[in-house]
Amino acid sequence: MSKELVISYEDNKVKIVILEDGRIQELHEDEIGNNFTVGDIILGKIKKLAPSLNACFVNIGYEKDAFLHYHDLGPQIKSSLKYIKGVSCGKINSPRLNSFSFEEDIDKDGVIQDILSPNQEILVQITKEPISTKGPRISSEISLAGRYLVLIPFASKTSISRNISTTEEKDRLRKIGDQIRPTGFGLIIRTVAEGKSVEELQSDLRYLLNKWNTICFRNIKKGKPPVKILGELDKASSILRDNFNGDFVSITCDDEDLVQEIKDYLHIIAPEKSKIVKYYDSHIPIFEYYNIDKQIKQLFGKHVNIYQSKGAYLIIEHTEALHVIDVNSGNITANQKSQEDAALHVNKLAAAEIARQLRLRDLGGIIVIDFIDLTSSQHKKELYEFFKEVMKNDKAKHKILPPSKFGLVQLTRQRVRPQKQVNTTEDNPNPNGKIESPIVLLDRIQEHIFNFLASPKEKKIYLHVHPFVAAYLTKGLKSIRNMWFLKYKKWVKVIPRDSFKYLEFQIQNDKKEVLYMFSN
User: Fold this and answer.
1) What is the Cα–Cα distance from 452 to 515, expressed in whole angstroms?
2) Quick one: which of 192, 262, 196 has its CA closest to 234?
3) Are residues 248 and 324 in the same domain?
4) Residue 293: phi, psi to the nearest 5?
5) Are 80 and 74 in contact (CB under 8 A)?
6) Distance (Å, rounded) from C-alpha 402 to C-alpha 380?
């Protein structure tokens, strides 16, 4: 299955889409200048303790204090606090931990007031972004993620991903990890390290140790809390780090600087693949060209069609406490031996689509799914196992329960970012119930476009409009656009935009500069 990464930079936002055979599998947004991203490492200051919660609140520079529970301190918190204090006051001048005197691990059932106190400096990492009225969730157990390894300061063991296939490979990787692991650091060997050589793992380790050096000398010494010590990779690079494999056939981006950043990062993790990175330069927006805008509008509504199901669809409802997904049948008897077989077939298609929707919308919390009723216990078990299989690609932690007596499947899914919401409806252009005649819209377009067609400065004109308007302007030999050409001897490139409202349009020049825009 071929994968493509499509990246769009617009309005100070980076939008990233992973496509599989042309269909959206994941959608991410990264706002430039966002200082509170999962993975960011921050030197904070403890604001106050909350003994009743066995937790504390930490000032990390966000408008609301971050929440740190005792269980998120990590067993080596005393060593971390000692090291940070030593670096800050100049007593410790080396990032290496082989000569550092470690403190004993804390009791897993202890209380937070025995470990921390107000105004104390602490190094923390964001594990959950601010959501709604809640501040960020943080941990003081720091980890630095690389392509194949995760480096954990102040730890002392090598752990192996449970998803590595064979015991022999786990043993091989554990031996390598024990050999290369620096004193004072722990290692987690990731799933993508399977089959990799010692040299590849050592190269990744050097990359992570350089990051640790950056934390110690450049930032902790100079930093005055609250201050960001190390930012997580930009979203595009972090997606490459966590998802990139041989299935990717192209990476396309419409921003030259971002293209160069991606190439530089690929030179680190997969130098042989840097040639698949391409710069997209066209007046047709990149998401329009790859049919992404249209798919987004189809996928984020309340009703979602199930791929290859001949009419079956999902209804996705959101409540304060949970998310509810209802599977509705289409022509389920087609090409099936019985009603039961047909229901199982549609349920499997729905399960695959639901797994995709959970990733796309980043739904978290409690999710209840009402599949089409099945009478056979064997079929219910088969559906349950199939659903667990298609959910394996979901990197968010989740737990799926077997079907209940009422046939409902319940699951919980970790939420580390705000739920992604895309508005698939449009406002009424006129709330009073009347809108302008279509001829008025045409007059408005012509009024402004004629000014630029008549100008000798503009050699080419590009008109971005809703697809219905584009069809109206370009249909037939005697189309309105052809009449413009005969009058002004300049060709207007009409670009349909699925993301535009009916009355919205833009006029651009050859340099992609917006000459005029209208949005009601």
Assistant:
1) 8
2) 262
3) no
4) -55, -40
5) yes
6) 9
Could you identify the residue written with the tokens 């692991």?
181
Task: List helix spans (H) across 319-395.
Answer: 339-361, 377-390
Task: Please tell me the distance from the alpha carbon of residue 506 to that of residue 70, in angstroms, as a whole number.
Answer: 54
The token duo for 502 is: 């009916």
Range of the domain at 17: 3-34+233-294
Rounded CA gap, 484 and 450, in Å? 8
Contact (CB, 8 A) for 125 and 142: yes
The pLDDT-based confidence of 152 (bands split at 50, 70, 90) is very high
Answer whether 289's CB lies under 8 Å from 300's CB: no
Q: How far is CA 405 from CA 11, 86, 377, in A?
A: 49, 59, 11
256-269 and 235-243 are packed helices; what angle lies between their axes, rounded to 10 degrees? 30
Specify if 115 maps to a domain. Answer: yes
341 & 461 share domain = no
b (16+ CB within 10 A) / e for 278-304: eebeeeebbbbebebbebbeebbbeeb
Q: Is the pLDDT of residue 425 over 60?
A: yes
> Is omega for the bond preceding 226 within 30 degrees of 0, making it cis?
yes
Q: What is the dihedral of CA 166, 172, 177, 178, to 10 degrees?
A: 120
- One domain, residues 61 and 201: yes
Residue 420: inside a domain, yes or no? no
Same domain, 453 and 479: yes
Domain limit, last residue, from 258, 278, 294: 294
If you compute the radius of gyration of the chain from its CA atoms, what whole number of angstroms results? Answer: 27
Domain boundary among 294, 312, 344: 294
The encoded tokens of residue 395 equal 């990197």
DSSP state of 237: H
**Residue 333 above 60 pLDDT?**
no
Cα 334 to chain centroid distance, Å, stands at 37
What DSSP state is assigned to residue 217? I
Say if residue 261 is in the same domain as residue 373.
no
Structure tokens at 215: 């934390």
Q: What is the CATH number of the domain that holds 97?
A: 2.40.50.140
Whether residue 257 sits in one domain with residue 215: no
- Average pLDDT over the chain reads 87
Cα torsion at 459, 464, 470, 472 (round to 10°)?
-70
Co-location of 276 and 387 in the same domain: no
pLDDT 10s digits, 445-461: 988 898 888 888 888 89
- Alpha-carbon torsion (337, 338, 343, 348), positive or negative: negative
User: What is the rounded distance in angstroms from the CA atom of residue 242 to the CA atom of residue 233?
Assistant: 11
Q: How many domains does the chain have?
A: 4
Rounded to two decimals, the pTM is: 0.76
